[in-house]
Amino acid sequence: xxxxxxxGLPIPANxxxxxxxxxxxxxxxxxxxxGEWTGYxxxxxxxxxxxxxxxxxxxxxxxxxxSLLVGLLQNSVGTALTSVPH
Length: 86
Description:
By secondary structure, the protein is mostly beta strands. Helix content is about 0%, strand content about 45%. A two-stranded antiparallel ribbon has the order 1-2. The chain has a two-stranded antiparallel sheet with strand order 3-4. Strands 5-6 form a two-stranded antiparallel ribbon. A hairpin with a 5-residue loop joins strand 5 and strand 6 (about 80). The protein starts with a strand and ends with a strand. Residues about 80-85 have low confidence and may be disordered.
């Protein structure tokens, strides 16, 4: 474990990525709408708390899991089509 420079909280020494900062609940910001990979919107605009990033830690070549939309295309009716090479 290491100690976070900003928060003083314990951080696992082998963490891939760590973000330290302040969450602002008292001054929400408007966000959205966000589109889904299928081409639809999941929600409307709404006020949400936001994070002011103070420190960012990462390993060399961190492992980041997620999905990558390769070759994303949009057709005339707004639905997303993916063309991923085989």
